[in-house]
Design goal:
The protein is an alpha/beta fold and about 190 residues long. Helix content is about 50%, strand content about 15%. The chain contains nine helices and six strands, in the order βαβαβαβαβααβααα. The longest helix has 16 residues.
């Protein structure tokens, strides 16, 4: 069985952790994974992504630019979304992944840490995992997270349960809107 198809849909900046990809993707590809990248940003990082595509033809594909329709097709067809950000106050990418069942692989920072429940033996046993998390934000920890993603993908039952959990997560405004409405009602009273 081939490994998971991961995507990166991001601005290409060091803040988003894109500089870590060249160090970790070769081992991910060797483990059976594939990668699609969509985004633009720093010329050196765009070049590094093109370099990965040249190094792994047919296993890594890169599109430089912004294309919202393509990004939605990528989320709907991929297995995982990689979000190795060094800081992320909120983050929408991982929430798109949760909604689509495209498991987020995220650095444990800011809003990423608040929205993704990492797959650990305990969270898998409890049936609550929604993705893969890692810390610190460096190539070693990110590489371990990708190895964990490969192993999770190989366990069909755990993979299916984690995807189902991800898609059940409340990523809309319903909860926040209700809290704001209650706050305003309390202020008016």
């Amino acid at each position: 069985m081939p490994g998971p198809l991961a995507i990166v849909v991001s601005r290409m900046t060091d803040q988003k952790g894109i500089d870590l990809l060249p160090a970790v993707i070769p081992e991910f590809i060797a483990g059976g994974g594939g990668l699609l990248v969509l985004g633009s940003g720093e010329p050196a990082l765009e070049g590094a992504m093109r370099g990965l595509s040249a190094q792994f033809p047919g296993r890594v594909s890169v599109r430089i630019g912004y294309d919202e329709a393509l990004s939605h097709r990528m989320f709907s067809g991929a297995d995982a979304v990689l979000v190795p950000s060094r800081f992320e106050p909120c983050g929408l990418t991982q929430m798109y992944g949760l909604r689509y069942g495209t498991l987020p692989v995220v650095a444990l920072v800011g809003g990423l840490a608040d929205t993704v429940i990492g797959a650990t033996p305990a969270t898998l046993a409890a049936g609550v995992a929604t993705g893969v998390t890692f810390h610190p934000v460096d190539a070693l920890a990110f590489g371990r997270a990708l190895a964990q993603l490969l192993a999770l993908h190989a366990d069909g039952k755990a993979w299916a349960k984690t995807r189902a959990n991800a898609m059940k997560q409340p990523v809309g405004w319903e909860t926040s809107a209700a809290a704001y409405a209650a706050l305003y009602e309390g202020l008016i009273a």
